[in-house]
Amino acid sequence: MSTPHVVVVMGVAGTGKTTIGPLLAARLGVPYAEGDDFHPQANISKMSAGIPLDDDDRWPWLDAIGTWAHERAGLGGVVSCSALKRSYRDRLRAEAPGVVFVHLSGDRALIEDRMAHRRGHFMPTALLDSQFATLQPLQADEAGVAVDVAGSPEEITERAVEALSGIPESAA
Predict the structure, then answer these.
(1) To 10 degrees, what angle do helices 17-28 and 153-164 make?
(2) Nearest CA to 95 among 131, 138, 60?
């Protein structure tokens, strides 16, 4: 299965964007880009210190992801990006109008448990509350699907592939 869509795997920290993104890209036969790699060092330092980013911090990051997505238009690709607010997704769509979102969503306790057990990531579990407070789920007029994060990475990826198969090319 392949897709001409550029898929943004979104959700709060700990939902598995970095795990599911590459698996989804492999299933779709397209390249994967890690959204965290687009953060400037100042953002990583801020988050590592437990300080949430503000919108001024996020705009250059979102623009960099949008540029990558724009360059992949018609070719397909998967990129991870929290994209928690509608305004962030609008910013991505302004740069890459055809993007489709896969919102990884799930139970807060499950997500917190997963965050507590991961190693080497700069986002502390203390910021999870701010992530949930910021989250604006996909709206009906946004091209995308919500996918539950319960289960194995393979099960989650399969649900995402099935959900994406229902999005026509013209919807993106």
Answers:
(1) 50
(2) 60
69 contacts 51 by C-beta, under 8 angstroms = no
CA 24 from centre of chain: 12
Pairing of strands 100-105, 32-33: unpaired
Which DSSP letter does residue 33 get? Answer: E
Other Cβ atoms less than 10 A from the Cβ of 136: the count is: 12
| pTM for the structure as a whole | 0.89
92-108: average pLDDT = 95
Q: What type of residue is 110? A: L
CB count within 10 Å of CB 133 equals 10
What is the helix (H) or strand (E) element at residue 100, kind and residue range?
A: strand 100-105
Q: Measured between alpha carbons, how far is 167 from 81 in angstroms, rounded to an integer?
A: 20
Q: Which of 92, 71, 77 is nearest to 29 (CA)?
A: 77
Note whether 6 and 100 are within 8 A (CB): yes
